[in-house]
Amino acid sequence: MIAALSRFIFLVCLASAAAFIALYNWGPEWAIFSGISVLSMPLVYSYVNLARLRRYVQSDTVENMPLPSGFWEEVFFRLQRLVKSLKQRMRNIEQQHENFIEAFQASPNGIVMLDENDQIEWCNSISERFFGLNYKRDVMQRINFLIRRPEFIQYLTRRSFDEPLLLERMGTDGSLSLMLQAFPFGNQRHLLLVQNVTDLQKADAMRRDFVANVSHEMRTPITVLMGFLETVQALDLEKSQRDQYFEMMMSQAQRMKSLVEDLLTLANLEANSLPAATNKLNAETLISLLRNDAEALSQGKHSFNFEVASSENLLGDEREILSAFSNLVSNAIRYTPDAGSIHVKWSVNQDGQGEFSVTDTGPGIASEHLSRLTERFYRVDRSRSRDTGGTGLGLAIVKHIASRHQAQLMIESTPGKGSTFTLRFPKERLTA
Ligand SMILES: Nc1ncnc2c1ncn2[C@@H]1O[C@H](COP(=O)(O)OP(=O)(O)OP(=O)(O)O)[C@@H](O)[C@H]1O
Ligand SMILES: [Mg+2]
Q: Are residues 153 and 123 in the same domain?
């Protein structure tokens, strides 16, 4: 304030001196002109500086403007400092905003922000995929116009968001199950969190199927067994007839036993996540063990060819390998009609992988069943398989054993001609 006052006094003195000199030399008109000229100098100076400021403001580069001297220096300096700090704050806010967006985008869950009218304010790319949304196109659209499922619209209108909502058959191909819940925040706005629960749902369905299948498989022999028991108890049977019933009861009990054993084998294989042991298993020995079992099971009804085409031996768990190999051989025997032939072979292919294959001249399997054969309890022909005592767990066990040995199970089959089941082991599982 004092500086401004002294500047003003200095200017008035200067103007008076100029007016006085002009009056003395050129007369009163020049005195007035000189006085006004000196007084208007700060105005011109201000005008020039304001014009410069306008230019820098227009190009949004005030902070780069060279500072003038004098009165305007301080004003411009403060202005520049203010602009710089505001810009820095804006940059920080933008950075924070970007960090939030990146974090929300990285989330495996779908996130949709809704305003108080359920219009989409923002959504991440996962939710775009889940609901077929497009953020650029759908921003500020009401979500119930875009997700038209009745249960979702009901959930939104009921406005009680304590429980999540399960939406099934979602996604472009209808293969997704989504669990969704709205959480209120801010001023009547909502955050919609969406989780992909497809795998959980599948596991749950598999568990339910499994329990249903086991119960069903157990109920049949138990019912038959009870029927026989009641008959034996109620009727006074002759010894020969009673023996016949006992034999049939035995076979049902045997069936239950093998079911329970297979289930236990599967459970043990599943519980063990470590790779199988790497004991050296002699191919010749394995094949001759298989031959003994096969001939006993077939009782001369089939012709066999056992071939060991490579001297390479296998590195694996003997009990598991024998179980997998004999499962394939017993399937071939059980499903191939009498007089059919079965070829069992151990070899090494051009890529150095070990192959154990069983080829039969049985009925073959139609292609639509092939991908499902290794599912638990899956049987192509239930009645036929039951006749042969099958539970539908054999190939599920083979597949587990294969994966514990990093091996692949391949099935080729032509209906009416026969099938070839091959287990292909990696080079690392072979030894001289
Ligand atoms: N060599 C084969 N020829 C024709 N069909 C086969 C052959 N091997 C398996 N299948 C079919 O695949 C189904 C599944 O076989 P898998 O070995 O898993 O069960 P299973 O033989 O019925 O019972 P389990 O082996 O548990 O006693 C069988 O029910 C049968 O229909
Ligand atoms: Mg089987």
A: yes
Please tell me the distance from the alpha carbon of residue 426 to that of residue 314, in angstroms, as a whole number: 10
* Residues 160 and 84 both lie in one domain: no
101 inside domain: no
User: Which pLDDT does position 214 carry in this prediction?
Assistant: 85
342 lines ligand 1 (CB under 6 A): no
Is 357 close to ligand 1, i.e. is its CB under 6 Å away? no
Looking at ligand 1, which atom is closest to the CA of residue 382? 29
pTM strictly above 0.70 = no
Helix (H, G, I), strand (E, B) or coil at 271: helix
Mean pLDDT (the chain) is 90
Kindly state whether residue 337 falls inside one of the protein's structural domains.
yes
Does residue 352 surpass a pLDDT of 90?
yes
Q: Which residues contact 385 (CB under 8 A, 6 or more apart)?
A: 379, 392
Mutate to test the pocket of ligand 1, among 395, 398, 412, 417 (most ligand atoms within 8 A of CB): 395
Q: Is the pLDDT of residue 117 over 90?
A: yes
Read off the pLDDT of each residue in 36-49 and give the average, rounded to a whole number.
88
Task: Identify the pLDDT of residue 11.
Answer: 84
- Out of 230, 250, 270, a domain closes at 270
State residue 277's pLDDT score. Answer: 87
Q: Which of 140, 164, 196 is the last residue of a domain?
A: 196
Distance 52 CA to ligand 2 centre (A): 92
| Ligand 2 centroid distance, CA of 419 (Å) | 13
The pLDDT tens digits of the residues spanning 240-258 come to 888 888 888 898 898 888 8
SS3 109: coil
Domain containing residue 254: 206-270
Q: Whose CA is nearest to atom 13 of ligand 1?
A: 379
Give me the residues paired with residue 192 across strands. Answer: 112, 182
72 band by pLDDT with thresholds 50, 70 and 90: confident
Q: How many CA atoms lie within 13 A of 430 on its CB side?
A: 20
Per-residue pLDDT tens over the stretch 13-31: 998 999 999 999 998 899 9
How far is ligand 2, taken at its centre, from the CA of residue 260, in Å? 15
Selection from 310, 306, 307, 317 nearest residue 281 by Cα: 317
- Mutating to test ligand 1, I would choose from 217, 251, 331 the residue with most ligand atoms within 8 A of its C-beta, which is 331
End-to-end alpha carbon distance in the chain: 102
How many domains does the structure of the chain reveal?
4
Q: Which residues surround ligand 2, an ion (CB under 5 A)?
A: 331, 394
